[in-house]
Specification:
homodimer; Jelly Rolls; 4-stranded antiparallel sheet
Chain lengths: 202, 202
């Protein structure tokens, strides 16, 4: 079978896979095989902002195709395996998957723009918790409840805010019974309530 | 020569090309031939938010490929000609152009997220004026200065704000000599100053 996989690489949680800057000749196109990758920009004051999560089967590092400057870090969230691909040697099937992946990524970033611009922080946090519950940072408790492993810093980056404010809103969501909060994890106690919150406009 | 163009359509300024909702079986993939298209979402209170401008040679309506729900309107900004394409019948060359276009669109939306989240309104307006000056709404004055035809409402949509606030900041930019303001148009008096402003973080 024709394959364009040049290499399969493994990264530990928190390891940086790609740095901001011009794509270099040795850069490849990357596809997540297992785990989760966060594309995150960091401003001059050190505030992090998540641009997109990349899940198994999805592509990143697509700037290698256009040659445009990369404005973000790609970071492994969990232990992550990625395939490095030669962008010029994709099979017809891979080309088709890449287009599908780019279309989905574009839809996701549209939603992020809409949320950051139009929603209150509480609704954005609800939407982010639901999004994370469909990634490899999710786990199931014995009672069947779904939880996500994420720090308040990571949630702040995903919603475009800072930790202090996120901690306050998470306290509010906890008191209102939407979630339960533990060390580095949050359990979704009322998923349908969170779903409703995530759809509310400002 | 093989072609996947099904039809070429013309739209007047302000005409809606696509509405939000599920892509229907009769939906096609669209490519701008001449003019400018704005992808814009409108919230329950009628506030508009520009997700992306689509310039000649660029594609939109890409949800027809993934089947995902469209969350925006596509609107002609100027008189606009678009090609309707059969997404399943793209030539290898068109497929390559589509991938390039999607990659560029994704980079643009990353920048929009970074701006909306991290920049002050004044910097976002400077960045938007420069972006518009590289589209068909730009014109050149006799003295060689570049201007853009855009209302305060349109700029508000592009920066994720409201008209009243935008009018205030445009007054400020005018007093400081960055721009000159006329009926439905803005002239870039100090492009390099605007360039500096557009790169400033919050």
């Amino acid at each position: 079978m024709q394959t364009s996989i040049l290499d399969t690489l493994t990264f530990d949680p928190g390891e940086i896979i790609l740095y901001p800057g011009e794509p270099s000749p040795k850069d490849q196109l990357y596809r997540v095989r297992e785990g989760l990758v966060r594309l995150q920009s960091v401003d001059d004051e050190g505030n992090a902002l998540t641009l997109r999560f990349v899940r198994p089967g999805e592509y990143f590092g697509e700037e290698v195709i256009s040659g445009a400057e990369r404005t973000y870090f790609a970071e492994a969230v969990t232990e992550t395996k990625i395939d490095a691909l030669a962008p010029g040697q994709l099979s017809a099937q891979e080309m088709h998957e890449l287009v599908q992946g780019l279309v989905r990524a574009l839809s996701q970033t549209y939603q992020t723009i809409q949320r950051i611009s139009g929603q209150r922080l509480k609704n954005r946090i609800a939407a982010t918790l639901l999004e994370l519950s469909r990634t490899p940072v999710a786990f199931m408790e014995k009672n069947g409840r779904i939880g996500v492993r994420a720090t308040h810093d990571e949630i702040a980056s995903a919603v475009g805010s800072v930790r202090e404010t996120v901690t306050k809103v998470i306290g509010e969501l906890t008191r209102e019974g939407y979630i339960r909060s533990g060390y580095g994890k949050l359990v979704l106690e009322n998923p349908s309530g969170l779903e409703r919150l995530s759809k509310e406009a400002a």
